[in-house]
Amino acid sequence: MKYLLSIPLLLAATYTAAACPTLRPEDAPVPVDGMTATQVEMQASQDAANQYVEEIRLFLECNAHRLHDLEHNYYVHQAFTAAETYNAELQEFRGRDTVAGR
């Protein structure tokens, strides 16, 4: 699994051919607990976090002219927070093998 360190690149990426979303992105996905999750669960959690960040990127890109700066900053913060939360669980997931001596 890769870290979500490319969020700034995602936010600056070029517009895709998808239709511009007008609805605000939903709440961020809750990542699984890295201490108890399986590989499959961690992958699903990563996919959910990536999808959420992408939804925010598209929303911001398509609606930049309509958003107040504070609202824009709020959604950027939400994207970074979702990525950081997932990354923290990923660190626990990877660290549990070290702690268990595997």
TrEMBL record:
It comes from the Bacteria. This is DUF4398 domain-containing protein. It comes from Halioglobus japonicus. Residues 1-18 form the signal peptide. Keywords: Signal.
